[in-house]
Amino acid sequence: MDEQPRLMHSHTGVGMAGHPGLPQHMQEGTGGTDGDGRKQDIGDILQQIMTITDQSLDEAQARKHALNCHRMKPALFNVLCEIKEKTVLSIRGAQEEEPPDPQLMRLDNMLLAEGVSGPEKGGGSAAAAAAAAASGGAGADNSAEHSDYRAKLSQIRQIYHTELEKYEQACNEFTTHVMNLLREQSRTRPISPKEIERMVSIIHRKFSSIQMQLKQSTCEAVMILRSRFLDARRKRRNFNKQATEILNEYFYSHLSNPYPSEEAKEELAKKCAITVAQVHRRSVSNWFGNKRIRYKKNIGKFQEEANMYAARTAVNAANASSHGSQANSPSTPNSAGETGSLWLCSAIKLVPPLFSIFLLSFYLRLN
DNA sequence: TGGAATGATTTCAC
DNA sequence: GTGAAATCATTCCA
Fold first, then answer.
1. Which sections of the sequence are annotated for DNA binding (predicted)?
2. Which of A119, A150, A246, A260 is the most exposed place for a label (fewest CB within 10 A)?
């Protein structure tokens, strides 16, 4: 074959009659004797190519050599290049314009929102803000947790960018390698710049699918990190013993109506020093909600506890009255009211009869 | 380490 | 909006 690379170049020539792919330069002088000669030559060459597969290996080899040395070979090569360009590439070209992958767009948006991709802004400030909001204000230990969160997010970001760089580098290297290979191959077969371009885009698509996996994994890592640090349930801390005592004291001293008012909840929250993850009144509400339902479900189990707190309350009350002052427990708007009685009655329905009798007598003593 | 205890959330009814 | 009930998820403890 010819030693010169035969990279195809785009032609705008009109195809030869009967051979739509044949370029203009192949048709020059078709009216003269020289033109007739060329036509004859090309006809011969085409005939030889068509029959080459029917020949033996040696014959075909000899024929190939003869064709390579033929004076019309470069012209024929160009014709083949044009035919290829006009048929194969034009068909495939229509498929190349693909819309952006929605999945990839989602991943990109998420990584951007989380501060993993895009400009660094303190490592997921939006997420950190969300964390602060979720915890009901930033306490000292919250900020410590947030800095831990930011540090881990920063690690993810660093790994992501390192891997991304690696992929891009590998992609560039591979693209260059393939381009060189194609240039090399263009010496022996028709390859157009368009074809190389298409090959490059295929490589890029392959690498972008790998990148998508990287983005997917990064998103998953961020999600896990978020749930680990930002899920409020994970922030649950048991109340300390003192707080539990205060709440229990209130609960059992208002057993007839264990529904503290908003003010009482606030006061209880203050007394229990409920801050941080346990958000003030809400935590108190949760505590009372849980306590009521669990007490109601299993009064027997809580009986001993109830007796103990009732005794303690009685002692406190006696002390208070002897000192001429009121009991130091948060007020309740309608304690021992109708609602309270109803609540206790409904609770009594759930316990065995003997317990009911005991509770009733206990209730009557309290009132 | 498994089960109990417990704080928080969700769903539903009022 | 509040409370009941169910459920989840974490913490505690034998």
1. 232-299
2. A119
Q: Which nucleotide lies nearest residue A347, CA to C1'?
A: C4
Worst-scoring range by mean pLDDT, A24-28, A82-86, A175-179, A188-192?
A24-28
What's the distance, CA A85 to chain centroid? 42
What average pLDDT does the segment A26-39 reach? Answer: 54
Separation of alpha carbons A22 and A128, rounded Å: 67
Residue A108 has pLDDT above 60, yes or no: yes
Burial of A365 (0-12, 13-18, 19+ CB in 10 A): exposed
Residues A156-165: pLDDT tens digits?
888 888 888 8
Distance of CA A171 to the CA centre of its chain: 24
**Residue A311: exposure state from Cβ atoms within 10 A (0-12, 13-18, ≥19):** exposed
Cβ of residue A233 lies below 7 Å from strand C: yes
Q: How far apart, in Å, do the first and last CA atoms of chain A sit?
A: 113
A 279-298, residues with C-beta < 7 Å of strand B: 279, 282-283, 286-287, 289-290, 294
At residue A80, the pLDDT reads 72
- For A172, the token pair is 């560039």
Query: Closest nucleotide to residue A296 (Cα to C1')?
Result: C4
A67 CA, C11 C1': Å apart: 86
* Amino acid letter, residue A177: H
The CATH fold of domain A241-318 = Arc Repressor Mutant, subunit A (1.10.10)
User: In this predicted structure, what is the pLDDT of residue A137?
Assistant: 41
Q: pLDDT value at position A89?
A: 54
The whole-model pTM stands at: 0.44
DSSP 8-state code for residue A327:
-
Say how far apart CA A169 and CA A158 lie, in whole Å.
16
The DSSP result for A118-179, as a single string, is SS-SSS-HHHHHHHHHHTTS--HHHHHHHHHHHHHHHHHHHHHHHHHHHHHHHHHHHHHHHH
Q: What is the mean pLDDT of residues A31-36?
A: 56
SS3 for A16?
Answer: strand
